[in-house]
Amino acid sequence: MAAAAPLTLQQCLALARDRSDALKIQSERRVQAEQRLNQAEGGIRPFVEYRYLKTFRDSDGGFYDGQAQESKFLISQPLFYGFRRLEAITLSKAEMKQEGYNYKTVQRDLDANVTVAFYTVVQIDADMENIQNTVALLRDRVKDLQNRVRLGKSRESEVYAAESQIATLKAQEEKDRGDRAKALETLALYIGKNPSEITLVDGSPEVESIEPIDKYIEAVSRRSDVEAARQAVLVQSSRLKIAKGALLPSLNLDGAWYTYRGGSYANSNWETFVTLDFPLYQGGAARGKVNEEQSRLRETNDTVSLFVREATTQIRSLYKALESSINQAAAYKDAYIKADKSYQVQMRDYRYGLVNNLDVLQAMNDMFNTRRNMERALIQVKSDKALLDIATQY
């Protein structure tokens, strides 16, 4: 069976979004909010129904028939409910927008988690490749030393020193393999793939500079969590108006058209009622509800300020982390160039007998560590840049 094609970060993000239960749950909440809007809009429209009534009563007194029946169409039209029903529509529209922003927030958190898992695997893969390349150099070194031992130009202990370093690197490789398996399990959980079938490729370009932080801070006002908090304020404002509306009178128009009617009203085919309800005293319950909703409105306003500060802090932290990673990567690039030159010089001097094998091994070890740190820093730059973009994208 052909091996699966390597996955890029964007492909992993797309797979994770397609199978995310959290996104599916949030999507259903958007549907529920839409249906609440339909219900609220229905509250201002006429209500029509058909009713059939058959009555059985005691007729021993002789004044009433033992049975009576009627059938009729009923219509009810709300005329005024203290603006509560109109405000319920406004509330439901704000809830719909809020759930839409909540969906984007869930997606942003998912993208960030997948990005961290992706680059964790990529970094471990780079470490393992670096180890394998260094082991290959050391094995060539062992062969050369064995030949020199036979010629009496090197000590046998030098061979053991190189072989010991190989064994140490192999142990590190096994640890990395275990860490990679755990990281793959995490990534597989998000993207729904068998860990044994997952291979990754990082196709994102290197990042050498970033735009000013002000550009990223400007995105805070457009972030989905901040926008959702603003919609929550609108929702709560509507709830407060609805609570205040309960203190106002309500007016309703009701009517009926009879298809059959018995008794003394048999010749009356229709009737209509205008109902006015005026709340006078409710034991303070309605006023208490208004006070509660006012407190909740102050709370939601404070929540907006809190979300703005938290989002700003998060973006600043991600920006500083990216800045640091870029500076580290640049320093490690310079260090690796010098470490590589040092190793080449040590190898040249070793052939002329100017340095011993331990000097060569030390130079090789320095080059290995510097290259590993450089590659880690370069990958960290890409990870930090991706996380910063995600935090400011929506």
Write the layout of secondary structure elements.
Layout: H1 9-19, H2 21-42, E1 47-56, E2 67-80, H3 84-150, H4 156-191, H5 213-217, H6 224-245, E3 250-261, E4 270-277, H7 285-351, H8 357-393
Antiparallel strand pairs: 1-2, 2-3, 3-4
Helix pairs in contact: 1-3, 2-3, 3-4, 3-6, 3-8, 6-7, 7-8
What does this structure look like?
There is one protein chain. The protein has 394 residues and is α+β, with helices and mostly antiparallel strands. The chain has one domain (9-46, 85-249, 287-393): Up-down Bundle (Outer membrane efflux proteins (OEP)). The chain is 68% helix and 11% strand. It is built from eight helices and four strands; from the N terminus they run ααββααααββαα. A four-stranded antiparallel β-sheet has the order 1-2-3-4, with no helix packed on it. It is elongated. The two termini are 40 Å apart. The relative contact order is 0.14.
Gist of the model:
The chain contains 8 helices and 4 strands; from the N terminus they run ααββααααββαα.
Summary keywords:
394 residues, alpha+beta, Outer membrane efflux proteins (OEP), 4-stranded antiparallel β-sheet, 8 helices
User: How many domains make up the 3D coordinates?
Assistant: 1
Low-confidence stretches: none
CATH homologous superfamily? Outer membrane efflux proteins (OEP)
Report Rg.
38 Å
Distance between the termini: 40 Å
Which percent bin holds the helix content? 55-70%
Order of helices and strands: HHEEHHHHEEHH
Number of E-type strands: 4
CATH architecture: Up-down Bundle
The CATH top-level class label = Mainly Alpha
Largest sheet: 4 strands, antiparallel
State the CATH topology: Outer membrane efflux proteins (OEP)
Task: Report the average pLDDT across residues.
Answer: 90
Largest beta sheet: what is the strand line-up?
1-2-3-4
The amount of beta strand, in percent, is 5-15%
Structural class comes to alpha+beta
The general outline is: elongated
Number of H/I helices? 8
